[in-house]
What we know:
The chain is an alpha/beta fold. The termini are far apart.
Amino acid sequence: MSDPASPTLTPDQWQKFSSLLDELTPNQRVWISGYAAGYSAISLSPATTPPHNKSSSPITVLFGSQTGNSEKIAKKLFERIEQTGRPVKIDSMASYKTSQLKRESDLLIIVSTHGEGEPPDNALGFHQFLHSNKAPKVDHLRYAVLALGDSSYEHFCQTGREIEDRLNQLGGEALINIVECDVDYDEKADSWIADILTHLGSTSKPSQSFYTATERAQTSTYTKAKPYQARLLENLPLTAPASSKDIRHIVLSIEDSGIRYQPGDALGVLPTNWPARVEELITHLNLYHADTVASPTLGSTTLEKALLHDLEITTLTRPFLESYAKLADSKELNRLLHPDHRSELRAWIYGREVIDVLKRFPVRGIHTETFIGLLRKLPPRLYSIASSWNADPDEVHLTVGVVRYKSHGIERHGVASTYLADRLPENDTAPIYVHENPNFKLPGDSKTPIIMIGPGTGVAPFRAFISDREATGATGRNWLFFGDRNFDTDFIYQTEWLDYRRKGLLHRIDVAFSRDTDTKVYVQDRIRQNSKDIYGWIQEGAHIYVCGDGQHMAPDVHSALLDILVKEGQKTHDEAGEFLRELQAAKRYQRDVY
Ligand code: NAP
């Protein structure tokens, strides 16, 4: 019998082929389709782009990633190049041998920018080397940079830009111009990968779909494009009514979803904007709730639904302000946007949202499509998961600090925190997905001691760590540093910590309540007070984890660790810095901070 799908195969070939097909899993079939496309392209088709004279030398894909996004893109690029049959390597900037740089011929970099324009932790060493006088000339190098960032930050994509500038300065040739991605990076990253493949002279056509075998395998799980609807089981206050804060313990059901997660992973939540703000925007702009909105990303929907579910209507980004300034034709706004007035703009943005811009710089008769076109997609919010799948396989727990405040005379509601705490009724569902974080993981060896530093809601992943270590019978010692404002009202999960102490699972806990005493006490004070023991634990191979505020707490804790290494380890300040960088590279010092 001839095969309808494969007229070019002989009956004998078809018999072999179809019996192989029967044995294959769906993922293996996807892999084969990609492999075959790449194989035939290399062996049969003429090149569409003149091949580079070093086309057979290995290509290096290098990533610097804080929460795993760059790493995910790097793996996708790696697999796509591999399918073309070109030799390719992939490495993290933390483990990359910088002595190799001068021998590279094609270097493809994917790097995020963190905090106030800093490289992610695992890119620190590479970034420093590149900008030092040890960096070699790279006249023979072709490179490309994909920079990830968040346009609501002043130093958007700074690390990517710096790396690109420096490689250029060192004599490298850009394969294609740097591409900068905002939080909604998927589409741009995909087209960057496609561009790279074209410029590398690869002739491989994407196998049936653009997606790789690994990704296909993952589509059975849930993603931000295809989230799981998780039922809200519990929404409990963790802080006392008299507290100056409102922190909630949120429990979502993932029963029967097949979702698995690991300690250190985050949960992506796709929230809904505060309806009162949506109402205010529509009224202010004199538009209609039912106005039809259509775009490739939104499909066809109404203005009200788009503002509730799809578009960012709070955080101010530079692209939004620049586009709006063209409509508003306001001298003041244009002055604020001038590069010389960056700090003034930063101060002006602080505590303001889209509605404040519309009110301060009014534009008459703005059309629905024009307004929609100014807004970026509403990004999911990531929360560190506070539970262990091994202990609670049907649930995922979050520790949510609820953001409500007043600024410039207006009530403000944090989008995702008030969605979970105030607007999601019990038993209703929230769209969620697991965001893996390979850079915040328990040690592979369960006997390894760990030191966890997590003030405020930064303690969330450590609840997951301890719960997991209990569930899996891990014997490594556990030491927690926790801090918050007041002991009486803000000691979240207090009874659980005491229980873990009693059971012998939490070997040490040190707390710092900053507003119980005249002089503030923070976790780093407790760390310094315990310098000898901390140093001892480090000597014994302990892994150190920091989670929470990245702007003040994390750098202060870093300084305290440096001080300990100087004091107890008799190191110079530089040696201590190098030691911590080595710990970071060895994944013995991991931070999940923002
Ligand atoms: P918080 O604002 O960080 O406050 C917790 C405690 O830290 C308070 O006692 C506070 O004291 C103290 N603190 C203030 N400045 C500090 C410093 N420089 N060093 C050490 N401690 C300091 O707590 P939160 O409201 O729960 O917020 C937690 C922060 O972590 C937020 O920025 C949140 O976005 C972030 N977070 C990040 C992750 C993540 O990256 N995965 C996860 C959870 C939370 P005073 O207020 O009395 O000065």
